[in-house]
Amino acid sequence: MSSMNPTQSTSEFFDAAERLNPSIIIDRDSSASDSPSLQKNCDKDRYDGVIADQHRPVFTVGESRKNSCSSVIDNAVETPPLNMKQKSITVAEIQADLANLGPLDLNDRKNLCRTLVNLREMLRNEPVDAWKEMTDEELVTLMNDGSLKQQDLEKKLGDERRAVAVRRLWLSEQIKCEDKMHSLPFEQYDYSMVSGACCENVIGYVPVPVGYAGPLSLNGRRVYVPMATTEGCLVASTNRGCRAIADGAGVAASVYNDGMSRAPVVQFESALEALKVKAWLETSSNYQIVKQKFDSTSGYARLQELKCTPAGRLLYLRFVATTGDAMGMNMVSKATDEVMVMLQQTFVNMELISLSGNYCVDKKASALNWIEGRGKSVVAEAVIPSDSVSRILKTNVDRMVELGEKKLLIGSSMAGVIGGFNAQAANVVAAIFLATGQDAAQVVSSSMCLTQMDKTAAGDLRISCTMPCLEIGTRGGGTILPAQRTCLEMLGCAGGHPTKPGKNAHILAETICATVLAGELSLLAAQCSGDLVKSHLKMNRSQLNLMSTVSEPAVALKDQCTVPKVGSHERRHPASAVNNAFKLSGCANIV
Ligand SMILES: CC(C)(COP(=O)([O-])OP(=O)([O-])OC[C@H]1O[C@@H](n2cnc3c(N)ncnc32)[C@H](O)[C@@H]1OP(=O)([O-])[O-])[C@@H](O)C(=O)NCCC(=O)NCCSC(=O)C[C@@](C)(O)CC(=O)[O-]
Ligand SMILES: NC(=O)C1=CN([C@@H]2O[C@H](COP(=O)(O)OP(=O)(O)OC[C@H]3O[C@@H](n4cnc5c(N)ncnc54)[C@H](OP(=O)(O)O)[C@@H]3O)[C@@H](O)[C@H]2O)C=CC1
Fold first, then answer.
1. What EC number(s) are associated with this protein in UniProt (predicted)?
2. Does domain 210-257+369-538 have CATH number 3.90.770.10?
């Protein structure tokens, strides 16, 4: 940050102002004389340098150095129009007054804000670049004023990164603490992929650590599976499961059903009329008309089934389609929407209550999905040699089989779970979903899993996982983001398959199911051997958390950071060393 003493040279001051904002051009000829184009606002004791370009923006110096930019501008709003309450002043007068202000930091944009009146003037003729020419603080002023919607920042600025930065600036004012944003990173991210596809009102991103489990021996391949999680122990556990699997012949996994669903609810004047339409839709030739319309909406969506379920005068129409390599919700919703328009022309008494009648069933726990399946239905199976069960998993086959029955089957039945006959399928599903850009909310049905274990004739452990609802894709949604795509590339299934649409999505589904199986093996073994709590206290309970009390502010952790060393006493780093690391970048955990 450079600063200058304004008493030394007014022209230096103007030079710096122009460097700071290239859109400002100061009319020096008139400022060198007692020209009316340099004016003093008598009431507010601030100076407005009149700019010689077509927008005639005015920047203000003076109080803004002590107060926040926005407060100066708030005052300025009340200022009467320039021509009413201003008088001409000389450069000598300006220099004399600026001298009283002390050193002025000309690199701080807050010191040079145009008034709201002038910003509005800039926008009046809607010049293409007016928004881009404004400083961040000026944009915030217009957001506070309601002249600029924060959701329009990307469009107006044509610069996603800057849009995020300005939104953060504005939001930090709203939450009345600029520091609150500090640890939410936003730099080093390609927002062009996010805007219009993955998120709105973007203010940054939450970094989640990504580990890998593997190699997982799956269908004759060796796979390294990326997992994004903050649950210490999860990756280690899944990794141990992969090791046990590798001791046998590996996992065999296969998709046995494929179909994404969308189910509108429609209403008729009577229950009988609803049944008539059901019969019409179930007639083969009519179904073909519907299918033709449905399939015409996409290069990949192909209708497989239309299930019509009546409820009084309501009819629930469950469209099920294959969707290539995409998870398919947008695709199937679009296709269903177009079919419904067509059906409404045929059945004029049919009232479409909603395109989604909750019979789909998306993002809600349901018996229907558990029974019918949704997305990819997959089964994975492996045999673990008995000596690997004792050597790697630290238990034995009989105990595992007994736990499978008493916990996974009887325990889950006692609890009345839907599709929850497993130990931790959701853990692995969520971690791979986050890593590979899946729709996180679909963990609800996607983690439905039946884990079964029995003893083979040779005395080894046979384990299988059946997952009927893996709602996943390798194309579309969050899979376009570079980090998530990289994780898909690790698995060899990024994007659409070049020759067999849908194959990449099947590879991902099989990989998730096989990794779930690895996680099941290890966690169930830890419960057999009584290692669950011990392992989590060692790998999951952070020493940093233990250091803090509820009432301590989070910043205390930075000042007194303790790095645990497994198996030894804590090592305490001097606060200065830790703080240096924090200072390395604008974001606390991005270095
Ligand atoms: C998209 C809207 C909101 C447009 O809605 P609209 O009414 O056309 O928008 P508008 O331009 O009139 O603006 C109204 C307000 O919406 C907000 N808004 C509007 N646009 C933006 C934007 N770009 N960024 C940030 N905020 C925005 C904003 O608050 C704005 O107020 P303003 O600030 O203008 O005074 C509306 O059409 C909508 O809510 N659609 C539903 C989308 C949705 O909820 N998707 C979730 C996923 S669906 C799913 O996953 C589950 C499902 C469906 O399968 C479950 C089921 O089976 O039911
Ligand atoms: N709309 C809704 O109600 C819901 C939406 N979602 C969201 O929907 C998004 C996912 O929707 P989805 O339909 O999967 O993705 P997209 O909306 O991104 O659609 C996939 C696009 O990729 C094209 N495509 C190119 N190659 C392939 C290929 N090999 N296989 C499949 N498609 C290909 C499709 O072509 P074409 O145009 O020919 O079909 C289509 O345009 C997620 O962001 C999710 O969060 C989630 C739940 C509900």
1. 1.1.1.34
2. yes
